[in-house]
Amino acid sequence: MKRISDPIQTTELCYYGCGQEANFINGSKNLMCCKSSNSCPENRNKNRAGVKNSGRDYINTYNNLPQETKDKMSWTRGLTKETDARVGRPKRIGIRWGSSLTGHTDETKKKLSVLRTNWLKVPENRKNLGRHKKSWMEQTFEIYLTENNIEGYESEIHFWNDELRKNYYVDFVFEDKKLIIELDGNQHRNTVEQDTIRDNWFKTKSYTVIRLTHEEFKKRYFSGQGFLDILGR
After folding, report:
1. Secondary structure E strands in the chain
2. Chain-centre distance for alpha carbon 198
3. CA 56 → CA 44, 52, 84, distances in Å?
4. What are the residue ranges spanned by the domains of the chain?
5. Are 185 and 137 in contact (CB under 8 A)?
6. Would residue 156 be called left, alpha or beta, if left means φ above 0 and alpha means ψ between -120 and 50 degrees?
7. What is the percent of the chain with per-residue pLDDT over 70, rounded to a whole number?
8. Distance between terminal CA atoms of the chain?
9. 104 CB-near residues (< 8 Å, 6+ apart)
10. Which residues of the chain have pLDDT under 70?
């Protein structure tokens, strides 16, 4: 229910019958002692008991209000967002990370990409994307890099493909080497075409993309061959 947060000056009592002086008016033109009708103790009791207020009660309440109070409630009458900015909906930029990037400058896109990457590093934020939990390969590869004192990499980095309007997230990227390591689980057997388009786009950005399948990763790791050769070590 829409409510008016600015307090009003009145000697009227709360519509819900709690006996307290009303200091607010909600979107249904009810006088309230609190900002929210659900905060009124008497209204909470009515809700628990299943007592409903009729539409006639609302009309009578509004008709009995002082004219000064009615004027405060209808201050927006006749105003439009063109004539008064207060009645316009505030503009929200950057909430949608995909299509909202269209029309931004390259500098802004880079800033949004960095913000998106930092946001994705929080596991809680990746739940709806299916990326909140790292795979066994990703965890094992990160441990391998740590044990071999390999630095200069980042994981879960976000890229925006402006031509295809796609969000890309890479498993590991070594920015100084322009090298991307992708650890492909079995699900990638069904995404060969999409992965090829994605890899070609990264190549236009001067990145080298190396994909390790699940079988190749296990062979390298358990045989002791490791991954130093593909990392240029």
Report:
1. 24-25, 31-32, 154-161, 166-174, 179-184, 208-213
2. 24
3. 20, 12, 33
4. 24-87, 104-223
5. yes
6. left
7. 69
8. 63
9. 112
10. 1-9, 27-28, 49-62, 72-78, 81, 85-104, 120-121, 123-133, 165, 233
Q: Tell me the CA distances in angstroms from 213 to 47, 183, 227, one per residue in order.
A: 59, 6, 13
* Measured torsion, CA atoms of residues 25, 29, 31, 36, in degrees rounded to the nearest 10: -60
Per-residue pLDDT reduced to its tens digit, 175-189: 999 999 998 887 777
Contact 138, 162 (CB under 8 A): no
Distance CA 199, CA 159 (A): 12
* Angle, alpha carbons 122-108-87 (nearest 5°): 90
* 104-223 CATH pick, 3.40.960.10, 3.40.50.970, 3.90.400.10, 3.30.460.10: 3.40.960.10
pLDDT of residue 208: 93
* Residue 169 β-bridge partners: 158
Q: What whole-number distance in Å separates Cα of residue 16 and Cα of residue 24?
A: 12
The pTM (predicted TM-score) of the whole model is 0.47
